[in-house]
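G., the chain you wanted modeled:
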Amino acid sequence: MHFISDLHIHSRYSRATSKNLDLESLYQWAQIKGINVVGTGDFTHPEWFKELQNKLEPDGSGFFRLKNPPKNPGLPGLITNETDVRFCLSSEISSIYKFGERVRKNHNLVYAPDFDTVKRINARLAEIGNLASDGRPILGLPSHDLLEIVLETSDDAHLIPAHVWTPWFSTLGSKAGYDSIEECFRDLSQHIFALETGLSSDPEMNWKVSSLDKYTLVSNSDAHSPQKLGREANLFDTERSYFAMFEAIKTKKGFKGTYEFFPEEGKYHMDGHRKCNVCMEPRESISHNEICPVCGKPLTIGVLNRVEKLADRELPEKPAGAPGFEYIIPLPEIIAEFTGTGPASKGVQQNFIKTISRFGNEFDLLQTIPFDEIKSKGGELLAEAIRRLRSREVNPKAGYDGEYGTISIFNPGEMEKITGQTDLFGGSLIRKNKQRKAKKQKLQPKQSLVKENIRHKLNEEQLLAVENEENTLVTAGPGTGKTNTLVQWIIYQVEKKKLPPEQIIAITFTNKAADELGERLAKKIGEKSKKILCGTFHAVAYSFLRKIKPEITTIYDANNRKQVLAILFPEMKKTEIKKLSVACEAFFEGVANKNSNDFRQQLDAYHAYLDEHKAVDLSAIIAQTNALLKNNVDAVAGNYQCLAVDEFQDINPVQYDFVKLLAAGKRIFAIGDPNQSIYGFRGSDMKLFFRAKDDFGAEEIFLKKNYRTPLPILNAATMLIQKNEYRANVTPEATKLSGSRAGIFAAKDEKLEAKFIAEKVLHYIGGTDTATTGQALSDYNYAFSDIAVLFRSHNIGREIARTLRNYGIPVVVSDGTSFFLEPPFNTIAAAMQLLENPHNIVALSELLITVARLPEKQIPGLLRRYIDEIVTLEEMTSSGNWKEWMKRYTILQPAFETAGTGVLLQQLCDFLLPTELDESEQLKREILLQSAKEWTETPVDFLRRQILSPYTDAARYKNAGVRLMTFHASKGMEFPVVFIAGAEEGVAPVNREDADIEEERRLFYVAVTRAKEMLHITHAGTRTVFGKEKEMQVSRFVGEIDEKLFEKDEPGAKKKQKPTDQQLSLF
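Predicted structure as tokens:
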């Protein structure tokens, strides 16, 4: 059967849409237009989805009926033909993200056959962003990843890239798109089978790009009001069902084609600058270097230009099997031309009602009713207008830069007023227009939007460090190319010095840093990089420890330590166990007094337990390795000739001894920045950095050229750090000699501080309305992931995170704790440990508490009964949760060594983690599952690798939104736009007796130097502390910077005048 569909519309919950965009209005206007299948739009919005569930019922075909359709026609006095209207579950997702060093802004349409599929999609997307903020949610989710979620949710869920040529938000658009569908969707490209062409292009234009021949070209209205329904649509001749419709789109069998806007009417057809009334053909704009000749700003490059740049054909070539298309002009526009009034006038409305009442619906009139019938019912003028439309004999005036074009049917003077009962409008004919035909154009060859990644050459200081033949200590300030210098030094050893890569050790502080170092090396030296021993301090030390004591197979972290101590000393209180655990850790890390006998008895008992169970404490790995290496260093590490250490300023005494042992008689390259030493609370000592020059006989080299931070901001950072008595004696030199001063904003309270940050963020991405109108409301075009909000403590970040979400801004909240150290993820680690070894009493103890939820005082007795083989694992408790866990354990345990890590972790997370996770926990879950999915070794190796990285930099793993993180977590990262929130006394710096003010200042210095382009520092006059409002004073660190280096920020981002949305009202 033949039917017409419009599969891209919105609800009243989307920005800049009509308030009467509800299911009843859509039903009424589908009747008026003659459309059989209408997309619901916006199924991701919680309130709209509830409405869909309440008002729609499945029809058994994957489509839905309106339970109680309205009886009235929608317009007074209107009579329409009966059209059987069905709804298709649909939504549009806006993605703003960074890929290939460019900001990408894409819109994609998602379709589902049932409510359960929608629920699963929404559940996944809700983990990423705030779906309630907008009917078309704005996420920091790449299009590729969105497609992956859709595919994982259901085989019958589909994704179609929306209006693919629109400059601002599309897959192939000039402003933030790609050069090909494959570049966007990469390994999942085969799952893209259709593209929505958008109002400013038609299939014929797309037929000039041969790479698009394989895709079915669909067209939809993207209606923001019910009246705009069907301004573009699709025609089918197949069974009217969800499954048959998408099969027709995939195969092009049963898909008869599209009804199209004349592309010139679209508001991005030509190049131009609306503010200056400049509209240009592509050749003309290229002759002006695509710069506005009036104001000197870049032109908005239109769809015609963009198509021509990607085209590889001079003229369109219709692909084999491709359906045709027909143009339509909305009937109110035709009537408006007759009456000489606007389409929204009352006169046009009255004539529109008369016309539809005579012909039944709009599509029948525009496309199928014979001319004679039109002439007899509507008059000669209407018949001639429809004839010219169907023959494509029109006069287009092209749209540009957000301004809709116009399509006129008659030339001036062609219509003379006549009267008559049979003529609705009157008119006589003078001459015909020429038929619209495709233009032959060929612009410059296709250009890639992705800039070539040219190798950054080493400057004189970096080259000196890389080629130094002696032991080298590099003091490298922020933004001086520290990591690149370290990588080039290793490459120099392998390529120039011909040192076998297996003789090199590279030490970092986190797994992610080690991974990034390995990736950079792999790009330069290929497979050789895999032979380099590269890892965290703990991972490298553990590898040597296993060589000396291969029987050690278990690692206990801080949680495990507390469990063991509780087993060993059941008489001790929980607070005493915690205090003892902290003391043990300090002792192992070399922070505590080695001669202290306060807990010697307990420490000896703990050591004995470790030895008995062939285990090692994570905090003791390096010290234990040091003790064994003193007499075995040549035998264990003698084949290594070079040692590279990153972030050397964060080293603690035990790690320093480890480096000294490994470096004896070998080359060492240590690099860091004492001014960024911020981990004194966990034992690091920046004085060790200065000692290293003498201890290693190293030549000290300074990297001073800062490539990151603009001069005004760098001057502010330098002025701040110079207040420290103990610091690196080096002044950074800016290479960015221009740039904005740091903004300073004094908010009345923390809510207004958060509001200011949210509005500034929207300003920097071009304004939220860019996503709706396509018009940039500011001169900025950043991705969400280009922006970071930094704070001294998480308390400051909570209000900001809440406010950003309320504004519809995707947020990534991260911290620096180990993946498996904190609840609830320690339960996952315990489960994996028990799967590896059913006799791991420590892991069992953790699971009895967290899964079986038994009181801690019952645990020791139960464990003794298990050790004595009085009870089995299954018989430990009758708890329902424990029985469920045992069912899964029985299935997973036999295949643990060979199971896929990704599948295993997914099952454990689904069962053991709570359904409600906070932002930081959600990020960790996502990263763990992704890391496990990519892991190629055993689950045991995965577990050990995670435990051996006691510090994480989780924010490096994901760039799907604005990053919210502590100063500590931001270390080693950089962002174009940085906000420092909570710059107040008692917050930054903290108000603690043991606070080291110089370390607090270094911490603030680290935050300031994360900024690549823009910096804003905010502080509140009052802040809620422990439930009470407290007056706050601006941080002394702000006062230590010359006020001339600040620019006062005002509340509310300066906005351009919002363009009128021409969709909102027809009458």
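Residues 417-422, 427-432, 444-456, 1053-1067 have pLDDT under 50 and may be disordered.

Shout if anything looks off.
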